[in-house]
Amino acid sequence: MENQRLGRLVLVIFPLQGHTTPMLQLGTFLHSKGFAITVAHTRFNPPNPSKYPHFTFLLLSDKLTESYTPATLNFYDLESITRNCDLPLQEFLELQTQTADSQVVGIIFDSIMSFAATVADHFKIPRLVFMTSSAGFDRAFWAFPRLLAEGYLPFQDSMLHELVPQESPLRFKDLPVYKQNIEETLKLIDYGRNLKNFSAIILNTIDCLEQSSLFQLRQHYKVPVFPIGPLSKVAPALSTSFLEEETSCITWLNDQPAKSVLYVSKGSLAISDEKELTETFWGLANSDQPFLWVVRPGSVSGSEWTEVLPKDFKEIVRERGLIVKWAPQKEVLAHSAVGGFWTHCGWNSSMESLCEGVPMISSPQFFDQKVIARYITHVWKVGFELDGVLERGDVDKSIRRLMTGREGNEVRQRAIELKHMINVSTLEGGSSYNSLNDLTEFLLAKNV
Ligand code: UDX
């Protein structure tokens, strides 16, 4: 049956949770449209094939050793992740061209796995880049060369709270500075310039959220752009977690009053220290608000998990708080008991929250998260910022502001309005619905 499908698409994934999830969701959609799917992955963090019986898999060698874990992987270690990956992809494509099985009609690659574009180009196969963050992030990224030419870079600490010219509402502190270093950022932009070698761009975003950034993106790249989000709704049942989800927290949520629980999670990469963990705990405990808190093992430097918290922390929070190692996040955010999300503003988490109409407290850690956080508070106006060194008093105040205050009600109303707009975009005739169809047509046209 497989060779009667519309042709094969190769999906080249980057092996982090926030990148793998949306790519597998996209693959699931494209498979439902009739394409055969091959998932090309590294030895590090491979997807579990038994969870995706409709896909085939291609192992790309990489320079990562077995000792790497999600907690120790340096996100910026792009070079070692992509080194040696091109050859297996090339061999695979050579083999495919010799067999009449299913013709490879396109390669969809994570923007970090840009070697795939060069390989695909060699075989004259359409290459589509999948940008796993927001359009606003990409736009902010491309502002750096202009800011350099206009003499704004490097910027002084005294400018951190000033608005970036032509990039309002971003402040200098919201710019996605790579490795906290402007020179490194400019180097990465140079690397990105070579990435222009692609036929189309796919983004897990929605027209109604990022219309002006999408407009700029189209002007900049001059190729078709497909904003097809929210992918979490396109393939809702797909399980993509690398870590085991503690589903028992849903039973706990079932016993909590509607909209009362603050969900707290900092995604799959963010690292904090023991002081931050303690201040977070006391802020949560003092707020008198029910909370479900994800503390990923290894995410607190110097601790394995929550040892640093007071021994009697369970008595302190009584039945009002639950700490887990990893949650079924989409299910949690969709639960009627959840009334707020304290997030690190990773793009997937932010989109999942927007889809469910859950207002946010934003505490970005690095890179794209800073841009996304600013959009949450100042463009979509669905949350409040909690930035800088965490102090229990500020945490407590922010939680009360979001969960019980008048302002909290206003952002909650706004979040519900956005949820409806997002929902409409996925229905027949909606922008994402149309974009998904356009993407399918684009791939089919390349197939003739
Ligand atoms: C990273 C970057 O930080 C992010 O900014 C970028 O946009 C993508 O890559 P990550 O930090 O993990 O991702 O954040 P995010 O994009 O939010 O992805 C986290 C994913 O893990 C989400 O899909 C979320 O649902 C899932 N998750 C998180 C769980 O399933 N359970 C949890 O307990 C926590």
UniProtKB/TrEMBL annotation:
| GO BP annotation list | isoprenoid biosynthetic process
Whether Transferase counts among this entry's keywords is yes
Pathway involvement of the protein, from the record: Secondary metabolite biosynthesis; terpenoid biosynthesis
The family annotation for this protein states: Belongs to the UDP-glycosyltransferase family.
The name on file for this protein is: UDP-glucose iridoid glucosyltransferase-like
Q: Does the keyword Transferase apply?
A: yes
Query: What keywords sit in the KW lines?
Result: Isoprene biosynthesis, Transferase
Single annotated GO MF: quercetin 3-O-glucosyltransferase activity
SUPFAM superfamilies on file: UDP-Glycosyltransferase/glycogen phosphorylase
InterPro entries, alphabetically?
Answer: UDP_glucos_trans
Pfam families documented for this protein: UDPGT
